[in-house]
Amino acid sequence: MLLIALSLVTYLPKKTQAARASNPNKITICHRTHATTNPYRRISVNKSSIFDGASLDDPNSNGTGHGRFQHNDWPGSDANPVTARPVPNVYNPTVTYAPNKKRWGDIIPDVLDNGNQLNNVTASPLNYTGAGYAIYHNQAYGGDSRYATMCKRRSAKEYCDAEVAALVADGMTQSAAESSCMAELQEQGALEDAPLLSACGNNIATCSFAALSVYGTSTGQVSCSGGNITMNATTNMSSITGEAYFQYGTTEALGTSVAATPASVTGSTSFSVTLTLSDGTYYYRALVATPTDDGEVAGTIETFTKSSSTCSGTATTTTSTSSSSTSTSTSTSSTSTTTTVASSSTSTSTSTSTSTS
User: Fold this and answer.
1) Is 275 exposed, middle or buried (0-12, 13-18, 19+ CB in 10 A)?
2) CB count, 10 Å around CB of 16?
3) What are phi and psi of 264, to 5 degrees?
4) Which residues, other chains included, contact 357 with Cβ-Cβ below 8 Å and sequence gap of 6+?
């Protein structure tokens, strides 16, 4: 049996369940961070969170919407004299950002719906040109492939681990940095964080940092028996009920979705699916679709190779650089990770692995 760890999950917009219409009130943005290792977090939010009644990018507004001035700050905004803001104001991998100057803006595409204004505000795209457009669409820019990996789906824990490290490096205490990130998660309003929000009584800022390791996580395994492959997973959705699925394919693009058993899950629940697959290398992940939010809480992409009635591969751990990191490894044994509400334990057998992301 090959154990494959599905680590921190990420809440993804639905793409595979055509019968469920996309919610027109949702929008996907690249939310800026303060970490040069993970400059953006791709999240889905309600359009109403972009603006709250003031003009786009108004420097005199103290609102917290993603389209507000506070989400489009830049390193020279408090210089004397103030230096000009870059256009677009996005993370630049060729710049060395000074401590406490790791600032760039959110990237927001056109949020208008059928030409209507949003909250009585004329909503134009924000930083959605040039390098910003490339970052949003995971494309290289100016021959630099680093732009293509800047805006990735990241779980709340992946996001906060990188954010806290950046804040501590800039002089903030560990506890203050953790509290700051929990408050930031609440402000983001990311649909990805629905299980965490539910567990925290609708206010993530009041939860302990340890909650990030519990809610919205998943562990799983894949096993071979004859010509069949069984994928297993668990998820902790707090009070949210959703539909359990697996996605798989011969590339990281996946492409095929299949319902799991049980089909409906809530709280801390296990689910699985058994498939008959031809020999080859496959990529897969577990996910839970939440009908009310038109999104998915999904595990990271893992891989295995099927040959006759056996499987081979190695469990991989997702790094903080991406919720869909690419890993290659060779091992003579397996790695398993188990996370529960009460405690966390990790057991690792001897292995040799190489990971790239």
Assistant:
1) middle
2) 16
3) -110, 130
4) 319, 321, 322, 325, 326, 327
Provide Rg for the chain, Cα atoms: 21
Question: What per-residue string of b and e applies to 237-253 under the rule 16 or more CB within 10 Å gives b?
Answer: bbebebbbbbbbeeeee
CB 163 within 8 A of CB 184: yes
- 45 forms beta bridges with 27
Rounded distance, CA 148 to CA 134, Å?
Answer: 7
pTM of the predicted model, to two decimals?
A: 0.69
pLDDT in tens, the chain (357 residues): 333 333 344 444 444 443 344 567 788 899 999 899 899 998 888 877 776 544 444 544 445 566 566 678 888 888 878 788 899 999 999 999 988 888 999 998 876 554 444 444 445 688 999 999 999 999 999 999 999 999 987 888 888 999 999 999 989 999 999 999 999 999 888 887 888 888 999 999 999 999 988 876 565 678 887 778 888 888 888 888 888 889 899 987 788 999 999 999 888 889 999 999 888 899 888 888 776 655 667 777 788 888 876 776 543 322 222 233 333 333 333 333 333 222 233 333 333 333 333
CA distances to 54, 107, 203, 313 from 62, rounded to whole Å, are: 9, 19, 20, 51
